[in-house]
Amino acid sequence: MKFHVLTLFPEMILRGLEPSIIGRATEKNLISLDAVNIRDYTLDKHGKVDDYPYGGGAGMLMQAQPVYDAYLHVVENIRTRQRPRVIYVTPQGKVFNQAMAKEMAMEHDLILLCGHYEGIDERVLEEIVTDYVSIGDYVLTGGELPAM
């Protein structure tokens, strides 16, 4: 199984999982873990990935463009005929459980999308996300912890 994590903090994913069972599984090539830095895909020369919500509103959102371009890069490298499953980890999603874990384990490639700020521009979520998943009813600093 190949995990592709779209994140603003790839080192958090890679270093956080390295000493765990997941780290040992990647060392033995039982699974693959790819942490993709969304900032690498922004068109802003300063690496900016946040903006005000399209149509107005409070707070800041992750821009659609860098998230979408990072997603396209992963999809191009997967080279599969079917659309890959994209999990957006969000408190508004369906609560993760063992049945979901079994279902997702059947996938060859799984893309996990980690949000920050007030979330991600809804336009890109509608375009790429297949599942909205939560690990519980509480607030975290970002999507990296539930993705791990």
Walkthrough of the structure:
By secondary structure, this protein is of the alpha/beta class. A 5-stranded parallel beta sheet has the order 2-1-6-5-7, with helices on both faces. The chain has a two-stranded antiparallel ribbon with strand order 3-4. It has helices at 10-17, 21-27, 64-78, 98-104, 122-128, 144-147; strands at 2-7, 32-37, 50-51, 61-62, 85-95, 109-114, 131-134. It is 32% helix and 25% strand. It is built from 6 helices and 7 strands, in the order E-H-H-E-E-E-H-E-H-E-H-E-H.
User: Percent of residues in helical segments?
Assistant: 25-40%
Uncertain segments are none
In terms of DSSP E residues, the strand content is 25-35%
Largest sheet: 5 strands, parallel
Order of helices and strands: EHHEEEHEHEHEH
Distance separating the two termini: 15 Å
Total count of helical runs of at least 4 residues: 6
Features:
single chain; 148 residues; alpha/beta; five-stranded parallel β-sheet; two-stranded antiparallel ribbon; globular
List the helices and strands and how they pair.
Elements: E1 2-7, H1 10-17, H2 21-27, E2 32-37, E3 50-51, E4 61-62, H3 64-78, E5 85-95, H4 98-104, E6 109-114, H5 122-128, E7 131-134, H6 144-147
Parallel strand pairs: 1-2, 1-6, 5-6, 5-7
Antiparallel strand pairs: 3-4
Helix pairs in contact: 3-5
